């Protein structure tokens, strides 16, 4: 068998001395020497790739360090992170924007190479911040209000547009409602300028900083829905509120107080106000208002909790997605990757595009 001249390459991390295959990233020529058995055990794609011989038109076999070369077309930083994670296990953190880029790279390639357990771990980690539950949303917001800035960026250190574009790229719908909700805090003109510091972080794994035409509509729907909720809350839930049964004040006194508070709230919110947080701020404000009796304050608090839950439960439907429960089944349960719209390549496929993973 003829052999090609040894390709030019630079040793990447990891480079395992007793490895038996070299993954060579095309164009950058960064190479990773690894064990084919380790990768094949974790991914059917790698398993199929290593079992198939090169096409007949490519009899000449490239080698590096005595090992077969397989050319790859991924970002070197993503491929490096994936390989190290497959060897050492996944450890995701949220200390800064670069931590998000690391998770993004892992999610991207675990999706591409059908490594389900790793994809699930990445998705579940991201939902700890970009939550599918109201409790998780409130926890994230509390951290955002309390955490110090890192490298000039506030918690959670990543722009919701990057989360949205990563979700679209990897077909993770459960991240979309929360990402769009927080994205709706930003005026469209600011998003289109793409000059927010969080959108300008410099990392190869950073998702796109552009709002796709598809998501312009989704953003608009979420933006309008959030504004409608705030206005309805101020006018109906607070302003038109009658005294509760068992009211301890003189007739009509509490309802007049609610009307007065409604007027104050109508001047307090801004175009970037978060509806869910605004509602809780109103509860805190009214709970310390001695002109409203205890019975009416408690009844108001309970009604606000119900309004917040109703809003949260309906959030996916605003942008045409199924319920949170269906999204959890789709993206957070084992087997979700196998039921994705993207089907795994057949073992019968042989050809350049299959041998040289792109």
From TrEMBL:
Q: Where is the BTB domain?
A: 19-89
Coiled-coil region: none
UniProt-listed SMART domains: BTB (SM00225)
In terms of CDD domains, this protein maps to: BTB_POZ_ZBTB_KLHL-like
At the top level of its lineage, which domain of life is listed? Eukaryota
Q: What is this protein called?
A: BTB domain-containing protein
């Amino acid at each position: 068998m003829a052999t090609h001249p040894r390709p030019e390459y630079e040793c990447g991390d990891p480079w395992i001395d007793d490895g038996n295959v070299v993954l060579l990233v095309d164009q950058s020529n960064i190479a990773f020497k690894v064990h084919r058995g380790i990768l094949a055990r974790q991914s059917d794609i790698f398993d199929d790739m290593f079992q198939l011989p090169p096409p007949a038109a490519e009899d000449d076999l490239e080698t590096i360090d005595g090992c077969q070369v397989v050319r790859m077309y991924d970002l070197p930083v993503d491929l490096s992170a994936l390989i190290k994670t497959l060897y050492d296990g996944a450890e995701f953190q949220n200390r800064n924007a670069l931590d998000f880029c690391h998770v993004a790279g892992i999610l991207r390639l675990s999706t591409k190479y059908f490594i389900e357990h790793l994809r699930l771990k990445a998705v579940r980690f991201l939902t700890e911040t970009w939550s599918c539950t109201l409790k998780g949303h409130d926890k994230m917001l509390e951290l955002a209000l309390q955490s110090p800035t890192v490298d000039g960026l506030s918690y959670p250190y990543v722009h919701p547009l990057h989360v949205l574009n990563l979700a679209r790229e990897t077909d993770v719908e459960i991240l979309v409602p929360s990402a769009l909700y927080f994205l709706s805090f930003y005026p469209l003109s600011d998003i289109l300028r793409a000059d927010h510091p969080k959108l300008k972080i410099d990392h190869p794994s950073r998702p796109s900083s552009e709002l796709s035409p598809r998501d312009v509509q989704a953003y608009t729907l979420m933006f309008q829905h959030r504004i409608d909720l705030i206005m309805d809350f101020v006018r109906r839930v607070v302003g038109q509120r009658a005294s509760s049964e068992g009211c301890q004040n003189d007739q009509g006194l509490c309802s007049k107080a609610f009307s007065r508070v409604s007027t104050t709230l109508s001047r307090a919110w801004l175009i970037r106000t978060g509806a869910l947080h605004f509602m809780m701020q109103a509860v805190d404000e009214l709970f310390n208002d001695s002109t409203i009796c205890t019975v009416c304050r408690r009844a108001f608090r309970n009604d606000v909790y119900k309004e917040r839950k109703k809003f949260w439960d309906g959030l996916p439907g605003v942008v045409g997605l199924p319920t949170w429960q269906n999204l959890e089944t789709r993206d957070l349960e084992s087997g979700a990757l196998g039921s994705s719209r993207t089907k795994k390549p057949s073992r019968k496929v042989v050809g350049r595009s299959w041998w040289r993973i792109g």
